[in-house]
Amino acid sequence: LLDPRPIERRTLTTCGFCGVGCSLEVAARDNGIATVRPVDDGGVNRGHACVKGRFSHGFVTSPERLTAPLVRRGGSLEPASWEETIGFVAGRLAEHRGTEPDSFALISSARATNEENYLAQKFARAVMGTNNVDNCARVCHAPSAAGLAATFGLGGGTNPFDDLDRCDTVLLVGANPTHAHPVVGSRLFQRVVDGARLVVVDPRRTLLARHADVHLRPRPGTNVALFHGLAHVLVRDGLADTGFLETHTTGFDDLQELLRDYPPERASAITGVPARDLESAARLYGNSRAPMIFYGLGVTEHRHGTDGVRALANLALLGGAVGPGSGGGINPLRGQNNVQGACDMGAMPDALPGYQKVLDDGARARFSEAWGTGISPRPGLRIPQMFDAARSGTLKALWAIGEDVLATGADSSSVEAALEACPLVICNDLFLSATARMADVVFPVAAWLEKDGTFVNFDRRFQRVRPAVRPPAGVRTDFEVLHAVAAAMGADLGCPTPEAALAECAELAPLFAGISHQRLDQAGALHWPCTSAESPGTPRLYRERFATPDGLAHLAVRPYLPPGEETDGDFPFLLITGRRGEHYNTGSMTRRTGNLALLPQETLDIDAADAASFGLRNGDPVQLTSRHGRAVLPARITDDVEPGQLFAGFHFPGAGVNNLTSAVVDEATGCPEYKLTAVRIRPAPAG
Ligand code: SF4
């Protein structure tokens, strides 16, 4: 039955699930959400939204929302007043401030707005005196930020999403946007229907792979060899624009030397991709006028994820996808709503807001002067290093803002050991997450539908986030919590409102100098770099020169190196983990909505022949054992996966998928190798 009560308020905001950044209109009555509709002229989504953004909002009124702070007493978490909890946290953190600042670490996240991320890193640096601040990009796209910045000068994608309509060929690598970025997936599919050519690189037969002109299925962990094989064909067949490469890049001679070692036959032997398919893909890509590369975690979440990003960036340069005179681009599909913004705002151990290096004396001096306090010259710990430090006893206090590190971290038993060893764990969350259950203090905080601020989506677009409803009584925003703890420690974080926080950031970070709430309210969106109040922003990067000091793109010359895990007689299957369309990340929000009926549990995707060899039928429980842990999942027999490979989503932490994944990380950035784990399987007893 239709609710007869009138709609009282309609609020324009930005979706808080994936990194596409769809514009949504939220209608509310009696401080409850009535409907969520995609905005017709929304910058990215143009009237589209997915089953998450449009329908998955019931979590906001879940009876499981935390509405009072919790403090551990005598082994159990007990409700406490805000005043008491803030005082307790401030007192404990004050013990570390000054004497041993690096014994404190803060993990921020995409759950927080830009303004909250700005305040979080300011709290760590200006109040606690440490650069031990990181964010959830560490476990997904840190290799993109590092790899793209090393090649081109900036760590973001190169194009606005609308450029998809101008491209003639899409190279989609290690991404399943139909599920992980549904509006991108739909528009990409539409573009293919309209005539664009499509090359998909993915071990799995995804929906888009089924409609691709060429589908390459490399063995997980062999991307770099595949990209070098494609590059070899481009150079060998004269499909690389040598004039452009000589004028706008460095390293081409060395790269050609390296590529001699990757003829299609050798690349095929390493990757398992037939040489003729590799040649077809290279020719299709190399003959396009405006090729566009989109890629996802299948590139980054590897032991050599940064090498993978850089080898893909080589392909972009060789194929004329990026740079002066190009018609295409290279764009990482950021998985979370504001993971780009968390990095942009300096929630990183080696970078201040706007990617200004902690090691840069001039940058530190500017922030020191503005904040009235010294900035440590030592880069801080990355998330995996924070856990190492906790286990070794040198990290004494850890504050996780919106990131359920126990559910999301690889090799979860090692994360659990770190949380157990850390004397003070503080957690901001909507619900009693796995991390919150182990914390000493839990702050109940607001959801994205209750917040004021901005997010940055996957194509570097700042957009406004506005409160559609008020948070439940007893709940505060992360912004308010950070201010309150700082104040109780006798510190003033300044910037009393989100608008003031972004203004302060804009003053200190030239990349964002022209961005403000006021301009966003008028313009709707602005792409960084936006270096003055007159600048319209920069939807397309590198039209005249690259952003490196010499203005040239730096081709990477790195050989293929084997992944961290290999199969053997004991662990003969390769498990890949990833996303499914119905849920979002740990599922803490979407599992508390009607989406649970669409996908009520996690499954193990397995090839029919493999299932038959174990006598498994659909739904039968399967025990997985890796070198790190165990999990049990029901079988789902499908031809999506190759024989010898398995796939599971990570939206049901209780299923224990991250018990299996390994602690191996990308050597350049510390991003875990979620995309391949050697496992063995056997039928498990029912129930
Ligand atoms: Fe758009 Fe992603 Fe939100 Fe779906 S989850 S509505 S694709 S931003």
Automatic annotation (TrEMBL):
<keyword id="KW-0408">Iron</keyword>
<protein>
    <submittedName>
        <fullName>Formate dehydrogenase subunit alpha</fullName>
    </submittedName>
</protein>
<keyword id="KW-0004">4Fe-4S</keyword>
<keyword id="KW-0479">Metal-binding</keyword>
<feature type="domain" description="4Fe-4S Mo/W bis-MGD-type">
    <location>
        <begin position="8"/>
        <end position="64"/>
    </location>
</feature>
<keyword id="KW-0411">Iron-sulfur</keyword>
<comment type="similarity">
    <text>In the C-terminal section; belongs to the prokaryotic molybdopterin-containing oxidoreductase family.</text>
</comment>
<keyword id="KW-0677">Repeat</keyword>
